Amino acid sequence: MKKSSLMPKRKSLTAVVNEHQRLLTNFQLPDGEGRTFDLYRYQAGRAVLLVVYRGEWCGWCRAQLAELNDQVSWFRDRGVCVVALSPDTELYTSILQELLHVSFPLLADPRWQVLPRLGLPRPIQATDIRPAIFIATAAHQIVYQHIGATADDRPPMTDIKRYITERVAPIY
Amino acid sequence: MKLFAQKKCIVCNMTVAAASRIKKYHSYFCSQHCLEHYEKILSDAKEKKLDRCCE
Questions:
Q1: Is A95–B52 a contact, with Cβ atoms under 8 angstroms apart?
Q2: What's the pTM value of the predicted model, to 2 decimals?
Q3: A108: burial class by Cβ within 10 Å (0-12, 13-18, 19+)?
Q4: Does the pLDDT of residue A140 top 90, yes or no?
């Protein structure tokens, strides 16, 4: 996979967010199995790792979700639930669910109802969708975010795990 | 409050009656035609026919 030379140069945005500044507000979206997903109901008092992936068509996103699926029990053991969200339609979300057999919910936001609230405005071209990761506590405070500058700009799993071990799991 | 949630075809988004719907791949389909369409997309996706990025 080559990086396109036409891809605009942007800075990635990684921040340990002030716990009093941002809340992850509740939302309802369809999942890859045709059900309506409610974030707060699913969290049920747990922290959440929210992964924004670009779409079924993105190879980097597939690899990231597959890696996450392999290690999902690590997160669950620490009281962190995992959810992934993209602007794909329900059809393509279902296709990806079928392809990867992930054991966490994949959500469809084709009308961009939730993504802009996370600081991800709708780009003009679909290829400019940026990957992102958010970690929110059980009290829905966003304590970590990484919005990728490019399609392959994603924090390593070791960094996410270290952050959760040091900052999120003790809170839980 | 609805006792039974209406199911929609994952391909054409039409509401499908319980008697005629097909459930496969964790999704509902209104017809064999839609199921075949889904399987074609799934097959393409398995072959990694990525058409917008990463190429």
A1: no
A2: 0.84
A3: buried
A4: yes
